[in-house]
Amino acid sequence: GQQVMQIPQYQHVQEGEDFTTYCNSSTTLSNIQWYKQRPGGHPVFLIQLVKSGEVKKQKRLTFQFGEAKKNSSLHITATQTTDVGTYFCAALGGSGGYQKVTFGTGTKLQVIP
Amino acid sequence: EPEVTQTPSHQVTQMGQEVILRCVPISNHLYFYWYRQILGQKVEFLVSFYNNEISEKSEIFDDQFSVERPDGSNFTLKIRSTKLEDSAMYFCASRDLAGAYNEQFFGPGTRLTVL
């Protein structure tokens, strides 16, 4: 089945430093979503990318979809303690139209104040 | 703001017992999902449900699992005979048919502990 890997698994950064997590799929993706899960919380949708090479920004967060639509990245500029959590990418698929969602392995971000 | 709710927040059960986890999706949503997350691991897709039937299910979702929408508001996950390895956080999610971003809204989860 489809495999979605993320690196790194863990990242500790000093507050103010940048952070990047990378998502790689074994198959070409139709689209990709990113979620954030705070410690003890549930996944919260951040964004969806659809087009090859697409770049989207949300304040300090920049999301990219690779040209081949097999990888994606999330970059956070000048991290803050509120960025702490695990960031998951998620690939949508399935025969019924986006009815099967495969989450990546996640990157756990710790921000040291 | 509307949200997905789940009950109970924590369920403790003995191995071999049946459990039913309950979810109330956002009222105008039409797609429903169950996921599980073993402590410290990734979120795993179990099943999606649309128009009163299962749309997709994963390899994890075997004959021990079933889902139901018994009325217009609840969406349940039943595990017939729980095993130790079923201990996990179970998340329900829902999404709007017309949602431009296929955004799924997750509930707060039910922590299932099988002893």
Brief characterization of the structure:
The complex is a heterodimer of chains A (113) and B (115). Chain A has 113 residues and is an all-beta fold.
Write up what this structure looks like.
- The complex is a heterodimer of chains A (113) and B (115).
- By secondary structure, chain A is mainly β.
- Chain A contains no helices and 11 strands.
- In chain A, strands 2, 4, 5, 9, 10 and 11 form a 6-stranded mixed sheet that branches. A 5-stranded antiparallel sheet of chain A has the order 1-3-8-7-6, with no helix packed on it.
- Chain A is globular, with a radius of gyration of 14 Å.
- The mean pLDDT of chain A is 92.
- Chain B is built from no helices and 11 strands.
- Chain B is mainly β and 115 residues long.
- Helix content of chain B is 0%, strand content 49%.
- The mean pLDDT of chain B is 93.
- In chain B, strands 2, 4, 5, 6, 9, 10 and 11 form a 7-stranded mixed sheet that branches.
- At the A-B interface, strand 4, strand 5, strand 9 and strand 10 of A face strand 4, strand 5 and strand 10 of B.
User: What would the principal axes of the Cα set say about the shape of chain A?
Assistant: globular
Structural shape of chain B:
globular
Mean pLDDT level of chain A: 92
| Distinct helical segment count of chain B | 0
Helix content of chain A: under 10%
Rounded average pLDDT of chain B: 93
Unreliable stretches of chain B (pLDDT < 50, length at least 5) are none
Total strand count of chain A, please?
11
Rg for CA atoms of chain A = 14 Å
Q: Strand share of the residues of chain B?
A: over 45%
Q: Please state the CA-atom Rg of chain B, rounded to the nearest Å.
A: 13 Å
Number of helices of chain A: 0
For this structure, the quaternary state is heterodimer
> What's the end-to-end separation of chain A, in Å?
40 Å
Helix percentage range of chain B: under 10%
The most extensive interface between chains reads: A-B, 27 and 23 residues
